[in-house]
UniProtKB/TrEMBL annotation:
Residues the entry annotates as binding substrate: 59, 144, 156
Designated name of the protein: Glutamate 5-kinase
Pathway stated in the Swiss-Prot or TrEMBL entry: Amino-acid biosynthesis; L-proline biosynthesis; L-glutamate 5-semialdehyde from L-glutamate: step 1/2
Gene Ontology terms for molecular function: glutamate 5-kinase activity
Similarity comment: family membership: Belongs to the glutamate 5-kinase family.
Species: Luteimonas salinilitoris
Amino acid sequence: MTVGFSEQLLPPWRRAVLKVGSSLLAADGGGLSPRNAQALAGFVSDCMAAGREVVLVSSGAVAAGRAIVHADTAVDAPIAERQALAALGQAQLIGFWQGFFARPVAQVLLTHDDLRNRRRYLNARATLSALLRQRVLPIVNENDTVSVDELKLGDNDTLAAIVAALVDAEVLFIATDIDGLYDADPRRNPQARPVEVVARFSAELLSVAGGAGSASGTGGMRTKLDAAQRAAAAGIATVLFNGTRADVLEDLARDRLRGTRVHPTRSRGAARKHWLQNAPAEPGAIVVDHGAGDAIVEKGASLLPGGVLAVRGDFRRGDMIEILLREADGEQRLARGVSQYSAADIRRIARHHSREIEAILGYNYGGTVVHRDDLVLS
């Protein structure tokens, strides 16, 4: 008889990403089933009612599209055919989730290229942040109609880990169709024992996770552990739990876990600081006055356009650039960070108040030139 998971308390969290795969949503006869979705939506609603923020990463578009045209598409069907089913099913998937919530939901379709491109990464983060501020539930999915990554690899698990870092989540919840990670496959080995806490990753641990999951989904426990490892490196904890059990979800909303908890391998602040310190910078810089320099160093403030004296080089929005402090005898390195505007834009808004940005440029990416979360002292 397989041993069950004991209860453990989760630390407090403010923002999370919940990943739900096709295996939990697909109906036996095709399409989408509310069987598990009802309790998963209840967990999200309970969290949001408590003032927390949740981003939902949901698979299921292909399953929904398959039911619309009554297609019997194999997992190894041509990519174009599965992309067509995803296009058919996206609206169905969003409508399916909206039916469980009184608050509005918003569809956000991303590709891995969007998240590798720094400018599109910033745009996606700004959009998701705006939705969360408005108490909307963002529902993220791979843009299967133009990207083949998820259709080929089943890596919405990886997408969820990337989104967790994108929105600065404290925890990544991954719903599975078993109770958590075991030291052997519990479906084949009744002596399998639960792994309740993962403090570090090893080749042995990853080999235990095995291969693909159910026929409805394309990712198994291995892709979930790979995602957890990615999240851990970004300072984000991961929780693996059984999304088919309403009692587990009710307890989870009260920070009581029966499943596997994966600890981050570093703090979120340390992970972010390491990236900011080591990411390659573009050959460009912003020169600031002493008022801006003091605010950055002494108060941990963002760089505002009013403190900009000059711009060096020709960089783009999203580029890593140096921030220089003008002294009587020259300029010295003060900090580095991700620019919210291009060099050409900053030249136009320099020495102006943040509220003037839109009037000058005709658009507005926010009131900061470099946000304090994207800035590290040199």
